[in-house]
Amino acid sequence: MRKLLPFLCIIFLLTSCIFGVLYFLSSKNNDTEIVEEIVVNTTELRSSVESGTITSKLEVDGNVIGDAPDIYIDNITIKFANDSDKSSFKTDYKIGDVLKKKDVLCSTKKKKYKVKGDSKIVDIIKSDESVKFILLNYDKLYIVGKIEIDKLDLLDFDTKTTILVKDGASERKLEAKIINWGYEVEDNKIDVFIHTDENLLPGTPVKIIFEITHKNESLYILKQMLMKEADSYYVEVESSNGERIRKDVHIGNFFEEYNDGEVIEYVEIISGLEVGERLIIDILE
Question: pTM for the full model?
Answer without folding.
Answer: 0.63
